[in-house]
């Protein structure tokens, strides 16, 4: 059973409402959906959603890297050679983690479908029953964010993550207003998406103390792990690293510098599941609990993250909220907007709606 054909669809996923964070606003989501067909008749599905502010990749650059450089490495190879694929891919082209992730996810899905096992069985086996999802709220006015937080509590969410990274004064106001709107016992998490300096971060954290923020995600600029370490060392608040931590080497730097208490692993930064799982293992050895985060992804990449999250004891939270934000998806998500429940279906556990993929497509490439 070897790989005979790979298709790539560039699709635009419509959002229910625009998504605004510190460094960008998104009206819709540009995604690359990959299908890897093997001679066994199975198709494995993968996806890349790039963030040019994080990995430097764009929709079109990832398309070209996949179609011209990486996908041809797989033709004629068996699906289980995932380690060999990563070594060949790294030798062929450095970086480009989201392009590599798309193929890594499709290979894992293909292998699990061929074995007729759910993907989590190949990633260590189930260790969590189900995944509770947070509600992620865009950076808007304090009043609007509080209104959305109140709505989310009524819908049954048990954790709220708010996007900040504006001026410290405005952000302190947002934290206070959102906390007032939350039902008792609902967790409040903050993600500044690099929007503060180290001193601003410490100012916000100090003023936010009465509001019980569970953790503060990536308060400072991506390029300065030292600055993140400075914040971490100066406060008792829990600090989570996100944008600077792509793969294992970054994880080692966090550990050496004691730069953060938690790490947000994303498949689009780690080049897929292969390295992400090792990052979670390394985190466990260093007493750094991890979250599995996501870009705003369709059910394909979201579920790849979910299978990893449900299979690893050191993954204590997730941010797999892409499908809940989409007005149209390429498959039916198992669960609802507030949780993901994975059953024993093979692979990612979804049937891809190929007509929907074609409807949303802006371009298509075939590699064989
Ligand atoms: Mg983040």
How does this model look, in words?
The chain is α/β, with parallel strands linked by helices. It folds into 2 domains: 3-117 and 354-367, Enolase-like, N-terminal domain (Enolase-like, domain 1), CATH 3.30.390; 121-340, Enolase-like C-terminal domain (TIM Barrel). Helices cover 39% and strands 23% of the residues. The chain is built from 14 helices and 15 strands. The chain has helices at residues 59-70, 82-92, 97-115, 119-122, 142-155, 168-181, 198-207, 225-234, 248-257, 267-270, 273-285, 299-311, 322-325, 354-360, and strands spanning 3-21, 24-38, 43-48, 131-132, 135-137, 159-163, 187-191, 213-217, 239-241, 262-265, 290-292, 315-318, 335-336, 339-340, 361-367. The strands form 3 sheets. It has an 8-stranded parallel sheet with strand order 5-6-7-8-9-10-11-12. Helix 1 (59-70) packs across helix 3 (97-115), helix 7 (198-207) packs parallel to helix 8 and helix 9 (248-257) runs parallel beside helix 11 (273-285). The two termini are 15 Å apart. The mean pLDDT is 97. The structure holds magnesium ion. Magnesium ion binds next to loops. GO terms for molecular function: metal ion binding; racemase and epimerase activity, acting on amino acids and derivatives. Its cofactor is Mg(2+).
